[in-house]
Structure formats: C-alpha cells, structure tokens
Request: fold
Amino acid sequence: MSTGPGTPLLDISGVTVRYGTVATAALTDVSLTVHPGERVALIGPSGAGKTTILSLANGLVLPTTGRVEIMGVDSVELGQRAHRDARRLVGTIPQGNALVGPLRVAQNVASGRLGRWGPLEALRALVRPREIDEILEVLTQVGIPEKLWERADQLSGGQQQRVAIARALFQGARLLLADEPVSALDPARSAAVLDVLDAAVRDAPDRALLASLHDAPLALRYCSRVVALREGRVEFDKPVGEVDQTELDLLYELER
Ligand code: ADP
Reply:
C-alpha cells in the first residue's frame, strides 16, 4: 500500500468492463484519477457507467482490460490479507445505504470496522458496541449525535444516509464512495446530506469523495470536479468552473 503525499487514492487507467457475456461494454477505455482533497462527481444518464466506476473503486468489480489501483494496490490483489489496511481506507456509502434496520445507530456505525464480515457475525459482535466516544464523535460530525441509541429503521431517509456516512468515517476511510447518496431525498435533505459529505473532505483534506449524482446542478454546487459519462465513456472531466450548460444539455440528450 502506498498512501504518501502525491499518491492518488484511486487510479483507473484505460479500463474496459464487460459484465459476463453482455456484448456491449459497461465501460470503454475509461481513465480517472482521484487525489486527496478532491470532491469528484460522476454524472451522466442512467446506464452511463457511474455505478460500475464506483464498483471498480472499491474492488467489487475488476477491469476486463486496463488497470485499477486503489491506495497504490492493484485491485486484482486487494482481497489479499496483506492489503487489509488499503481496503479499510475505502468507505462505501451504498445506494439505499444498507443499514441493519433493527440495530441501533451505534451498532450500525460500529459495523464500519468489521471489514468484510457478514451481517450475522456483525450482529454477534455488536450487541455491546465498544468505542462509544469515537462513535459519538462521528455522529456529531454528521449532525445527529442524539440518535446514538435509536433504531436505524426509525430514522428518516436523510438521517439514515448520515449514519451510512458516519459508518464510513468510523471505518477510517480516506476515499468516500457514494452511489446516488441523495436520490431518495427531498431538496432540503439532499442539501443537508451533501453538506455533510462536502465537510468530510474539507475538514480532512487527506480524504476524497467520489459520488455519482445524476442531478448535474447538485454536482456543480457540491463538487470540485465533474466527470461526465455517457454510454460507458468519459465525455469530459474538468473542474466545475469550466463546465457549461450546453455540454450538460448534450450529455443528457436522448439521441445524438
Ligand atoms: P449507471 O450507474 O450510470 O446507471 P451502471 O454502471 O449501473 O450505470 O451500468 C452501466 C451498464 O452496465 C448498463 O448498460 C447496465 O445495464 C450494465 N450493467 C450494470 N451492472 C450489470 C450487471 N451486473 N450485469 C450486466 N450488465 C450490467
């Protein structure tokens, strides 16, 4: 693992992804590097390849051709015991957030340190979460310390998303991956959750955020860089200040 200054947290280089025997590639010759301090939005229409990029970034999908390095480790080798530390540095905030509903918020956050255990082991280990002070600290960062002992399934959608973010922070993640983190939320709650993600990187510039956001205006408002995808290819990759409306319109046009 290499996480020194200047080392990208994620380096996707010339990657093509094909799922099984599907003829059309999900991604074609995609290159994308994410450095500490960046807040990168993946935008583009449904099916453009945003989720596939996030799955490459946490090693769940391997490239068919090309190379992916996560914390300087080739993703093909990421599952090895020796690379446990590199895996810990990648925190995924999945679509629908995937909390364990009947468990308390504290237990859900604590599960961030269980690596790749299944829910059963997690349940056994988490009946009495240790490290409550640290859990409270991350819940304070995401703005809901008072929810520590609430059942996760009693929370609103926005609060559940905050718990998922707190779990990734408690895990010690430096690369935060968020798949459509606000797609199920109303505008006010969306803004609040994106504020939390934004602050997570601004407050700790050794972190970075890579988030898929089909809503381009939100991407422009909350991120520092936009990577636009269409039909599995990168259409453009630039700082938000350089994105113009015409290219956004073109990106989301149905037929070209
Ligand atoms: P997005 O997140 O932008 O909607 P995805 O990465 O989910 O795009 O999908 C990119 C392409 O890959 C789409 O054509 C989708 O149908 C296909 N795809 C995604 N996951 C699978 C899978 N598990 N098996 C087969 N095809 C898939």
Summary: Residues 19, 22, 26, 44, 46-52, 212 surround adenosine-5'-diphosphate (CB under 6 Å).
